[in-house]
Description:
By secondary structure, the chain is α/β, with parallel strands linked by helices. It contains 13 helices and 21 strands. It has helices spanning 6-10, 45-60, 84-103, 119-128, 144-153, 199-202, 211-223, 249-257, 276-284, 301-307, 313-324, 344-357, 384-407, and strands at residues 19-21, 36-41, 64-65, 74-79, 108-113, 134-136, 158-160, 168-170, 181-185, 187-188, 207-208, 228-232, 263-267, 291-293, 330-337, 361-366, 413-421, 427-432, 437-441, 450-458, 463-467.
Amino acid sequence: MNTPNYKEARKRTKNEVEIREFRIDKSLVELGLNKKFFLKTYGCQMNEHDSENIKGMLRLMNFQETFNINEADFILLNTCSIRENAHNKAFGMLGRIKHLKESKKNLIVALCGCMAQEEGVVSLIKKKYKFVNFVFGTHNLDDLPQLLKNSFEDKKQNINVLSIEGDIIENIPVKRDNQYKAYVNIIYGCDKFCTYCIVPYTRGKQRSRRREDIINEVNNLVKNGYQEVTLLGQNVNAYGKDLYDDYDLANLLIDVAKTNIPRIRFITSHPWDFTDNLVDVIKKYDNIVNFVHLPVQSGSSRILKLMGRRYTKESYLELFDKLKSIPGISITTDIIVGFPGETEEDFRETLDLVEYCKFDSAFTFIYSPRENTPASLLEDNVTLEEKEQRLYKLNDLINKYSKEANDRMLNKIYKVLVEGESSKEGMLFGYTETNKLVNFKGNLDLIGKIVSVRINDAKSFSLDGEIVE
Ligand code: 5AD
Ligand code: SF4
C-alpha cells in the first residue's frame, strides 16, 4: 500500500526526469472481454486528456465503454481537487455507487486523479469508503491495467498513490473524444506554488516532454485529419525551461506551426513566463490562434502578493497591452474572489481591472481553502455572503463585456471549425479561433471542416451566422 504524503509531494530536486515507455503485460489484454466500464471525469482539460489515456488502456484490454452506470462491471472516477465543490461532487457520486455495489457484489470501483493525491481524501476512503476497490494517483496512470487485474482476483482495498516529483510516460494508448480537435500534453506539473493552489502537490514538478515526441504526435494527428491541437500544461509558458537551454514555448509553437495543422491553441499561460518573443510568434503564424487564456486571479497587487503570483496589477496590464497589439486577439482570464483578507477596496481594484481589460470571457470562482496549502492557514475573514455578492457583481460585469465582444463580431466573417449538428434541426455548430460557439445552417458533410461564417446575431454565450462562399 502506498498512500499520499504532502512532505514528499512538496519536494523539488534537480534530479533528471525519467522517461518511460508504456508497457502492458500480454496476460492483461483479455481481462476486459465481455466487460463494460463507466468513467466519470471531473476537472480541467489535463484530467479530460488523462481520461482519454485511461479509455485507450481500457480499450486495449478489450473493455467496452458504457454511459449507463447500472450496466458497468468497472466504475472509475477521475477526480479533481481544485475547489471544495469538485470534492463534493465526487463524494456524492461515491455515495450513489455504494448503493449500486450493495446489489452488485462483483462490481469493481476505483478512484484516481488529483483527489487521490490528497492525504485527507485517502484516509477518508480507507475509513468510510471501504467498498472502493482501488485508488491510484496522477503519477502512475499506467498501473491501471495491473491494479484492475489484482482487484478482480483479490477484493481487499488497494491504495497505490505515489507522492513523487513525477516521470514522463510516453505512448500510453489514447482514445480521443473528438475526431477533429486533440489535446497534446507538452508539460506536466507545476513549480509556481501559488499559495491557494493544490496543483503543485497533486501533479508533481514542472517537467517538459521532449520536443520530438510532441512534434511526432502532432504530425500523426495531421495525418489522421485533425484540424486543431491544444497544447496542454498547468503552465505552458514554462515549457522547455527544465529540459533545454535555448528552446522554449515560442520555439515549440513555431515547430508545431510548421506541421501545418490548421489551428494551434495552448493553455494555460502564467503571466510570469510570457515573453515578448512569444507575443511576436503568436502574431506571426496564422495557424497559432489569436486567443490567450491569461489568468489574472485578482486586480489588487496586495492580494496578488499574498497569492504568491509574482506579478503586480501594473505588470499584468503591461503584458495585456502587448497582447492586445495582435489584431483580432481574444483574451480570457480566471478570477478568484474572497481570498483571505480581500477588502472591498481590493475587490474594487479587480472590478477596475476587468473594466480596463474587457475580457472576452472569464472563469470566476469563490476562494476555496485547500488542504495543506499556505493560504489555508490564513484567516478566512470574508463572510460567505460578501464572497457571493462579489462573485455576483463580478459576473455581471464579465457578462456585459462578453456580450459586447460578441456584438463586435456582428456582420463580420470568421473561420469556424464545424463540429457537429446543433440541437436545432438543420443547424450545425462549431467554434471560431477565439473559441466562440457559432450556430448556422449547413450540410452534414461540412462537419470536420473549417468554413467561413458571417455572424448575424450575437447572444450572451453564442452567435448565429450563415455560411459564405
Ligand atoms: N479556490 C478557488 N479557485 C481556485 N483556483 C485554483 N485554486 C483555487 C482555490 N483554492 C482557480 C484559479 C485557477 C483556476 C484553474 O482555478 O483561478 O486559475
Ligand atoms: Fe486539473 Fe487542477 Fe483539478 Fe487536478 S486539481 S483536475 S490539475 S484543475
